[in-house]
Target: Carbon monoxide dehydrogenase large chain
Amino acid sequence: MNDLTPEREERSANLKGLGCSRKRVEDARFTQGKGNYVDDVKMPGMLHGDFVRSPYAHARVVSVNKDAALALDGVVAVLTAEDLAPLNLHWMPTLAGDKQMVLADGKVLFQGQEVAFVVARDRYVAADAVELVEVEYEELPVLTDPFESLKSDVVLREDLAGQTTGPHGPRKHHNHIFTWEQGDETATNQVLESADVVVEESMYYHRTHPCPLETCGCVASMDKVNGKLTLWGTFQAPHVVRTVASMLSGIEEHNIRVISPDIGGGFGNKVGVYPGYICSIVASIVTGQPVKWVEDRMENLMATAFARDYWMTGKIAATKEGKITGLHCQVTADHGGFDACADPTKFPAGFMNICTGSYDIPVAYLAVDGVYTNKAPGGVSYRCSFRVTEAVYFIERMIEVLAIELDMDAAELRRINFIRKEQFPYQSALGWEYDSGDYHTAWDKALKTVDYDGLRKEQAERVEAFKRGETRTLMGIGLSFFTEIVGAGPVKNCDILGMGMFDSCEIRIHPTGSAIARLGTISQGQGHATTFAQILASEIGLSADSITIEEGDTDTAPYGLGTYGSRSTPVAGAAAAMAGRKIRAKAQMIAAYLLEVHDDDVEFDVDRFVVKGVPERFKTMKDIAYAAYNQAIPGLELGLEAVSYYDPPNMTYPFGAYVCVMDIDVDTGVPEIRRFYALDDCGTRINPMIIEGQVHGGLTEALAVALGQEIAYDKMGNVKTATLMDFFLPTAWEVPNFETDHTVTPSPHHPIGAKGVGESPHVGGVPCFSNAVQDAFRAFGLRHTNMPHDHWRIWQTANDLGLHE
Ligand code: PCD
Model:
């Protein structure tokens, strides 16, 4: 913007538009405890629901006795599957085309499964009554391992017995869900057979959980007088919830109002539809009173959407010089008791087929088998776009393993295989079109900043010192280069439950030159109220401070598919820019009329329209807004409003280069992160400060997943990590200082060139932390060891390598 005269520069700065590190407008209420979360919704006569949950991972429900619970003072109702069956609500459709029990119908399939729903005067009475419901179970054999499940005679889903085809094609076994194949298997196998070098590696991306600070919950309020159902909830996709609620309940969609108030973190956990929502709605319809259901932490960890649980085997082929020639990837995906994965319909394994990563790999093949086990359903993209984190972890580990096999430097191996700048838009072997990228520039900048060569030298010296017995710490240099794929749509490729994945923005300019804009997305902490106003400020020339952003109320917001998969900027952000341009187009006509010149003789200049070549003749956007309501202009309607429903032509492909330097104490297994450098390229940057916050948050969650966070089960299907005593949630204590950096490669198809960024640091961070741990032991013969790298497992790795002798 250095072409601006000082005066224009000042006007431009006043807008607080694109590129401004504008302070988050939502923080005024958050930092003062004035946020309005679901649990803050309190209504007269409101009842409280709580679940009776199964202690067993697999059991027949022989009987449920509600008598003692119903006898407790304050208990209003106890619902079981039998009560829901006449309404046909004892099962519900999942986002993956499967169906899921709302309340146990004859059997339970995972520990923590919902068996009965108690409704009581207050939360405490409800909890007491839960204890009084007597359920008789008959235990069944438990399958927690997907490979065993595929061989077992035990039929997990009796409701599907005999069905040889599912929503995603043929089923090979009664516990098999689908096989999803992408790419050319024959060609890939041919390359693997004739290649100079082929390495094979198997890895497990463990089951974990998004664990937002606020758990999932809702308040359902059925007004029997006007027939209107209002549902407040922790929903990442409020409009989708409204449509599903309408389809399930038969209540017409205009009579359902879904409100997502402030949300205390989503991370994919709040995309799916949970039994608690259905039960609360039914309970409110039955009792005629509002019903609140908010799960506790243990319920959240045990029963709501898990993430990952992918067993991945890769084969990578290369020339002796390290040029990759082919990639084969076979995945066994543990989906738990019901296939409730949140993915676009045509992608039963999400965007796992971006597993060729940032590399120019001519042929590739991917096959994913989905399998039922006795674990919780879900399968959400915890801070990644539909399984991208699995894909990126897979390829970034395969690269490391190939580097070991070739005895090559892993940074150099990446460099010679990167997709080159001039190859964009790039067609990947598994069917994606990467919109833009400049990987070499980013990589060189990253390596130079951290003095990569110096680090390798230091590492080699450390290895020698260790061998001489002078030190007991090893140094790991973790590298990762990732490409994300965010912004689903386009509608022709991506839908959820048949609803195309577009998004929307509606703007209304007020006469005094301020505005309200509503979008189909919903912030869960990302700061949309701050950043969407910035996009609009630059488009329409009104200060971001004069623009209110509203999301999450289906009675007022235009239809949208919600916020997950970093899609808000690529899709709703684009809708905002497009709606802004419509406003500008009308404003141009108004300005021309007011200035008494032809439409083509005025041009937009930051916050005004000026007569071309006569900058002193202008009308500001404020003048124009006023005129739009108060001046009868021939041929123009009054008012200044616009709406855009945006169907993106493609997804956006943000990328980044990360380096982690770690010192590992071989005797305790404790890793000390010395340095973490993250370079992100998300195209045009809307708010650098918010981006930095997003990167810090995503890296923190990456650290968690790589270094300890997991949902672990024992053989009986007991969840071993159902409290924050056992489930690792990092705090300031564990989190290192993160250094952030960037390059800017705009998206060629996005109206303002922006790509998503919220998930990137997680996607790139997990392999970076993991590679650092593994790299520390490379000199001692380690090829691969599975995450999470908690202290005990790191110690075990050192022990297995004989480093404790
Ligand atoms: N941005 C800027 N620039 C650019 C891009 C972006 O500035 N270029 C910014 C925006 O505006 C916002 C943010 O940043 O505010 C983000 O964005 P994105 O990327 O677009 O995204 P979104 O859609 O909005 O969001 C979503 C994401 C996700 S997906 C996740 S997980 C996470 C993240 O986001 N989550 C969260 N981040 C966050 N943060 C917070 N605080 N919280 C939360 O919860 Mo998924 O799928 O759901 O799993």
Notes: Residues 236, 265-268, 381-383, 524-528, 531, 563-569, 682-687, 690-691, 694, 697, 754-759 surround PCD (CB under 6 Å). The mean pLDDT is 97. The chain has three domains: 6-35+503-646, 38-140+215-263+270-303, 306-487+651-800. The chain has 20 helices and 34 strands.
